[in-house]
Prior knowledge:
Largest sheet: 2 strands, parallel
Distance between the termini: 37 Å
CATH superfamily: P-loop containing nucleotide triphosphate hydrolases
Amino acid sequence: MTGKDLLLLDEPFGALDSLTKRTMHSWLLGLWGELQKTVLFITHDLEEAILLSDRIYLLGQETLHEFKVSLPRPRNAEIIYQSELIILRKELERLIQNEK
């Protein structure tokens, strides 16, 4: 895509409707698997972060938390309906709430 080892994406799907966003998630997961690049993906969407990430970094006022996503790869967008992702989302929400 860029010829570099690192791909930076800042809220690339933020303005999309949910169905188009799911299509783009599948596209990115497939592309990412082919290119074998490191992707820094910035998002406020918790499901999107969990679906696309191996590690999530939460930036607080004076803190930085690393949240590891233990879901196996390859992933597809259907995983958002599975209990493993829902459990991770609850954990992530608790971590965010404790930061406030």
